[in-house]
Automatic annotation (TrEMBL):
The UniProt record lists the keyword Membrane: yes
Entry EC no(s): 3.1.1.2
Cofactor binding annotation: Binds 2 calcium ions per subunit.
Reactions that this protein is recorded to catalyse: an N-acyl-L-homoserine lactone + H2O = an N-acyl-L-homoserine + H(+); a phenyl acetate + H2O = a phenol + acetate + H(+)
Keywords: Calcium, Disulfide bond, Glycoprotein, Hydrolase, Membrane, Metal-binding, Signal
Subcellular location per the Swiss-Prot or TrEMBL entry: Membrane
Keyword Nucleotide-binding: no
Coiled-coil region: none
Subunit composition and interactions: Homotrimer.
Bilayer topology annotation: Peripheral membrane protein
Source species: Rangifer tarandus platyrhynchus (Svalbard reindeer)
Family: Belongs to the paraoxonase family.
Signal peptide boundaries: 1-15
Name of the protein described by the UniProt record: Paraoxonase
Length: 354
């Protein structure tokens, strides 16, 4: 009888695991292929060969690139090289990406930058907020951008128990930001398990020197985050649920869910087109290819533009799509004055004139 019960329980467990496995394949869109959507005037950016996971552009056309992200579960083309921040002046005719110097006293050897966000204070000081994973831990670094010297002055490292697995941030003050956690746990095995079991335990956290709190939760895996041009709404990408959430910002900085836009792709970082307020989304059409890297069958790239997200029927258009022959694993797309930059998780980056 005991054996029969054990066998039945084993059978149920295997059936459940099988079901979770199939569900995970769907969440990863493991069988999806993309049709190419080409743009005529594009070239790969020199000097970016091991990922530019996030890109943020200032209103004056200076673009920041977070490069060289490493993660235990991800492929890397430069596993021994620390990451960095590159800058490109999009006002130039043939802009080049140059590495910014970082002030002494900051541990550059362990720099592993992920999501970034710029913030311009009322006195015109420009701050760059960077999610960092030194030794795969989680911190948020705040830098002051010194334009004349092409350098970043390190001001502060933030660590907090509510920031166990940070992916991206949106700065809303000189030391104030919203951050997404893409996992609930920080331990690699528990991270894997929570994803496999689809627990929906990930969240968005508000951080300020006086108050740190969870402001939205229940995401499968919260990833890219950004703010509407009028600063009223926060957009959050749930990568494995293929959703973009629109949340309304309250005076106490809490967020209330307004709507969810369902898409057919894994949504990574979100950027705002300053000329229209449209959302540009760096997407992974097939997450299986992204996480299990095979150079013969590489991950593809896809960039979507979302117009009028608050309306009843937002318009979603594919701006760019490629099967991986040119660009693998697009994670972000940002525009400035008819110029489009597309970054990737661990591959190259593309510069296009629209
Ligand atoms: Ca970002
Ligand atoms: Ca991301």
């Amino acid at each position: 009888m005991g054996r029969l019960l054990a066998l039945s329980l084993l059978g149920i467990a295997l059936a459940l695991l099988g079901e979770r496995f199939l569900a995970l394949r769907n969440r990863l869109k493991a069988s999806r292929e993309v049709e190419s959507v080409d743009l005529p005037n594009c070239h790969l950016i020199k000097g970016i060969e091991a990922g530019a996971e996030d890109i943020d552009i200032l209103p004056n056309g200076l673009a920041f690139f977070s490069v060289g992200l490493k993660c235990p579960s991800l492929h890397s083309f430069a596993p021994d090289k620390p990451g960095g921040i590159l800058m490109m002046d999009l006002n130039e005719e043939n802009p080049r990406a140059l590495e910014l110097r970082i002030s002494r006293g900051f541990n550059l050897a362990l720099f592993n930058p992920h999501g970034i966000s710029t913030f311009i204070d009322s006195d015109d000081t420009v701050y760059l907020f960077v999610v960092n994973h030194p030794e795969f831990k989680n911190t948020v670094e705040i830098f002051k951008f010194e334009e004349e010297e092409n350098s970043l002055l390190h001001l502060k490292t933030i660590k907090h128990e509510l920031l166990p697995s940070v992916n991206d941030i949106i700065a809303v003050g000189p030391e104030h930001f919203y951050a997404t956690n893409d996992h609930y746990f920080s331990d690699p095995f528990l991270k894997y398990l929570e994803t496999y079991l689809n627990l929906h335990w990930t969240n968005v956290v508000y951080y300020s020197p006086n108050e740190v709190k969870v402001v939205a939760e229940g995401f499968d895996s919260a990833n890219g985050i950004n703010i509407s041009p009028d600063k009223k709404y926060i957009y959050v990408a749930d990568i494995l649920a293929h959703e973009i959430h629109v949340l309304e910002k309250q005076p106490n900085m809490n967020l209330t869910q307004l709507k969810v836009l369902k898409l057919d792709t894994l949504v990574d970082n979100l950027s705002i087109d300053p000329s229209s307020g449209d959302i540009l989304v760096g997407c992974h059409p097939n997450g299986q290819k992204l996480f299990v890297y095979d150079p013969k069958n590489p991950p593809s790239s896809e960039v979507l533009r979302i117009q009028n997200i608050l309306s009843e029927k937002p318009t979603v258009t594919t701006v760019y799509a490629n099967n991986g022959s040119v660009l693998q694993g697009s994670s972000v797309a940002s525009v400035y004055d008819k110029k489009l930059l597309i970054g990737t998780l661990y591959h190259r980056a593309l510069y296009c004139e629209l």
